[in-house]
């Protein structure tokens, strides 16, 4: 049974030049007896010494400390159940605080890296930037928590980062972490572009995408690190961004939230799939240009749901890969490559782009090497397309492309002949 008591901030915290040294006693190694770990300033480090109940030294290690002399040292413990107890060592002074987490195992004091998205957080930082604590309020190994509050352009941001014990390290847990901007939770949602639901049918039919390309798109700007949460609408006329000012849970079978954004208030009702995928969004109060129902590009399969970040990546993965031929039996193979929204079109690697396609075309084929596009595609259903030569010039605002000849028709090999 895991310990349910709150993590203990060890009472002893002393200056290095004092006769007292902070110590912590707990079942550190996971055995049947307790051990004691004492911390003392030693040059530019903090020396840790672990001993058993009889006073026999078991292990020694050096923990990071600020550059100045006589840092203030504090110890705090977090139980990880029957396998032992972790120790946080904090050394502060001269406006700097250094933290490290340790485990006593197999007769050695081992430091556990604290990893945030795979990268170890710095040993030392400005004092007062973050505060840390152990959370033992759950019936599981103690969680290591870092919290801070700071001002951002959108307002006051409070962040809480949770790290969980993973054997030889502490790993960041995004699902348990959270952030609030002006008291509004910033969600950790899947980042997908949302399209008007009335236009998605054209995308899936692979035909007549002009309306789809010109429609307003919606994206949620939700960045916990920058303290950003907003609705962002964009189309050929430009872009507007509405900061979210309030949110509440929806009272319905499927999980969701209602967001309030901008001034005057715009309402966005968001239904979530799997708790983190904005599946259906209904916007009201933003005006005729933006009001309506939005959804991401989703493929519903019997065993799984696949959500694409945008239409280009869905087209690159689902619509074009395969073998194609012209009426004159010219063959071309299209394959998915690793780059998002990119394919190998014959012997060229290109990215698909809806924006900027000239009149009469649906997609630009943008070379991965940075060169100007030479071709565009017009989709003619799931099994046919026109490859259209184009000429692009760099204008004052953006690159402009125009058709430069007749299109060449390709059909999918093995498909029926009666294509559009």
Structure description:
With 420 residues, the chain is mainly beta. Helix content is 5%, strand content 52%. The chain has 3 helices and 37 strands. The strands form 6 sheets. Strands 10, 11, 13, 14, 15, 16, 17 and 18 form an 8-stranded mixed sheet that branches. It has an 8-stranded antiparallel sheet with strand order 19-26-25-24-23-22-21-20. The protein has an 8-stranded antiparallel beta barrel with strand order 29-30-31-32-33-34-35-37. The longest helix is centred in the middle third of the chain and has 9 residues. It is elongated, with a radius of gyration of 29 Å. The protein starts with 7 loop residues before the first strand and ends in an 8-residue tail after the last strand. The N terminus is likely disordered.
Short summary:
With 420 residues, the chain is mainly beta. It has helices at 197-205, 210-214, 311-319; strands spanning 8-9, 23-26, 35-42, 45-51, 57-64, 72-79, 85-93, 96-105, 108-111, 114-116, 119-120, 124-126, 131-135, 143-152, 155-165, 170-172, 178-181, 184-185, 195-196, 217-223, 228-235, 238-249, 256-261, 266-273, 277-284, 292-295, 297-300, 305-308, 322-325, 331-336, 342-345, 348-353, 363-367, 375-379, 384-394, 399-403, 408-412.
